[in-house]
Amino acid sequence: MAVLSAERIKITTTKSPLWCTITIIVLGLGVAWMIGRSSSSSIQAYNDEAASGTPDFEKFLPTFNEAGLGVSGFGVMVLMIMAALAITSEYRFGIIRTTFQAIPSRASVLIAKACLIGAFGAALSFVLMLGAVFITKAAAGSEGSTNLALDNADAWRAVYGVPIFAFLCVVLAIAVGALLRQSAGAIALLLLWPLLIESLFGMFGSFGRNVTPFLPFANADHFLSSGSSTNFHWGPWGSLFYFAAFVLVVFGISIAVVNKRDA
Question: pTM to 2 decimals?
Answer without folding.
Answer: 0.91
